[in-house]
Specification:
Elements: E1 6-8, E2 22-30, E3 32-38, E4 43-57, E5 60-64, E6 68-72, E7 78-93, E8 106-109, H1 112-122, H2 132-146, E9 154-156, H3 161-172, H4 180-187, H5 191-202, H6 206-223, H7 228-234, H8 240-251, H9 255-261
Parallel strand pairs: 1-3
Antiparallel strand pairs: 2-7, 3-7, 4-5, 4-6, 4-7, 5-9, 6-8
Protein name: AraC family transcriptional regulator
Keywords: DNA-binding, Transcription, Transcription regulation
Pfam families: HTH_18
């Protein structure tokens, strides 16, 4: 991304408990957005209206397509960038209100109600002094966040340094043809140990993890405007039909329909 074309998504938000229960900002937009590694004292729910956002934490990589949102617990270091033009919104929640919310990062599909509630909160005339009606809506938004259903849009990273080195290399180039034994030789880890590390530390088999890496990279490339045929080759598929079949298995629709309609209902 050209740094001259990117705009930061860091905002002047209330610090921790020094401010309202919930603070919302809508209609974030730009040619592209990016933010280096940082953290917030407040919990954050970041949503996409158009465009796709990638987020990197110490434990996993994530993508946030249109009509999805990502929940980030308080104090968790992360960095983000968009792939092409992006428009979205963000809400920041006081730490004391995060006790009943997920304690890990997750990407979930948005309900129409949550989208409208966030937009209404972003348009409160005084967002730093909430009255009873605003507090009631804020608590409903918290219930909606707690009910988010995780989607297969995250790529957990193993803790073992050798396995993590392999994971980073595959995430950078999912089209690499190296097999399990070849990756093991490259990183100095026995294939059987590598298989166990992925299952124990990511909850996924090595092959399933590799397929998820292909899916996430494909979403980024398509969102950036690359033709689907080229994307299939770039993530290691020899045929377009095999790539489309994988995409449909994971997300329920073809790539073209997915990006045309936002996401399946």
């Amino acid at each position: 991304m050209d740094a001259n074309q990117a705009s930061s998504i860091d905002l002047d938000i209330p610090h921790a408990e020094d401010g309202p229960l919930l603070y919302a900002v809508a209609d974030l937009r730009g040619v592209a957005v990016q933010s280096g590694q940082h953290q917030h004292a407040r919990g954050q729910l970041f949503g996409s209206n158009t465009g796709l956002l990638s987020l990197v934490s110490e434990t996993a990589n994530f993508v946030v397509p249109p009509d999805y949102a990502i929940w980030i617990p308080p104090g968790l270091p992360h960095g983000a960038r968009s792939h092409g033009p992006f428009a979205g919104w963000s809400i920041y929640i006081a730490p004391s209100a995060c006790a009943g919310l997920p304690d890990t990062v997750l990407v979930g599909a948005l309900s129409p109600f949550l989208k409208q509630a966030v937009r209404k909160a972003a348009n409160w005339p005084d967002k730093r002094e909430l009255g009873p009606p605003q507090i009631n809506l804020a608590r409903v938004i918290l219930d909606e966040i707690a009910a988010l259903t995780p989607m297969p849009l995250s790529l957990p990273l193993p803790r073992d340094p050798r396995a993590r080195r392999i994971a980073r290399a595959i995430a950078d180039d999912p089209a690499a043809k190296t097999d399990l034994a070849g990756w093991g030789r490259w990183a100095g880890i026995a294939p059987r140990t590598l298989t166990r590390r992925f299952i124990d530390e990511t909850g996924m088999s090595f092959s399933a993890w590799r397929q998820r890496a292909c899916l996430i990279r494909a979403l980024e490339l398509i969102a950036a405007g690359n033709p689907i045929t080229h994307v299939a080759l770039d993530v290691g598929y020899d045929s377009l039909s095999a790539f489309i079949a994988m995409f449909r298995r994971e997300l329920g629709v073809t790539p073209a329909r997915y990006f045309a309609a936002g996401r399946p209902s």
